[in-house]
Design a protein that fits this description.
It is a single chain. This protein is mainly alpha-helical and 229 residues long. 71% of the residues lie in helices and 0% in strands. The chain is built from eight helices and no strands. The longest helix has 34 residues. The radius of gyration is 19 Å and the shape is globular.
Length: 229
């Protein structure tokens, strides 16, 4: 597994090409997402941890340049660090998201009763749908959604390690990491734990293409899970 010529380069080469093409689009968030999935699968396949650490360290200056040299990405980082410095400008979206989450309290204001989605919170139906969900259904609704994703992740990992088919193992792991990593990035953005990125919340954010991919991937995962059982 740790043979550079016959294993690592053939495995990581196509991934780097795909990541580069996505960055050129430009879409740094999806590129990072693809890289995370690939690294997770290679690690489970037996890749030495030192290569993963090395890849992480090597990617830091690249990501730094991709952020500081692109004005809108730099604006997002500045807004994340201090949204109150410009509450009507670069910090507006994050502050409105936090207001939506906080307004829900424990039980929420009621289904379909969100005020923030009425032209206050930008992209309320896509990337920031979790903020609206928390406002309408409160802490209880948010906790239920998080619990469902935890169950999904547990079942996915369980299926990956119980199946006897090698391809099925890596496919199940890749699908599970894809779903969970997107979920963590989206929730991190909504809750102000990381800079804004255009990553939807799986199964919940508006978008037909995203939902279709998630459902197809889940169908494959269910098939693997059935064979494992």
């Amino acid at each position: 597994m740790n043979d550079w010529k016959h294993t690592i380069l053939p495995a990581i080469g196509p991934v780097l090409v795909l990541v580069g093409l996505v960055v050129i689009e430009p879409d740094l968030g999806t590129a990072v997402e693809i890289f995370i999935i690939a690294i997770a699968m290679l690690y489970v396949a037996g890749l030495n941890g030192k290569y993963i650490i090395g890849a992480g360290l090597a990617s830091i200056p690249v990501i730094y340049l991709l952020i500081v040299r692109v004005p809108y990405r730099l604006e997002r980082v500045i807004a994340f660090l201090n949204p109150m410095a410009d509450p009507q400008g670069r910090g507006f979206q994050l502050l409105q998201s936090l207001i939506a989450v906080g307004s829900g309290g424990f039980t929420g204001v009621g289904l379909m009763e969100s005020k923030q989605k009425l032209f206050y919170l930008p992209e309320a139906h896509t990337d920031f749908i979790f903020a609206v969900l928390c406002e309408e259904l409160g802490f209880i609704g948010g906790a239920i959604v998080l619990t469902l994703f935890v169950i999904y992740g547990w079942r996915g990992i369980r299926s990956a390690f119980r199946t006897t088919d090698e391809f099925g193992r890596f496919a199940a792991l890749g699908i599970t990491v894809m779903i969970l990593s997107q979920t963590m990035i989206n929730l991190g953005v909504v809750l102000g734990m990381m800079p804004t990125k255009g990553i939807p919340l799986p199964f919940i954010s508006y978008g037909g293409s995203s939902l279709l991919v998630m459902l197809v991937a889940t169908g494959v995962l269910l098939n693997i899970s059935r064979q494992a059982d």
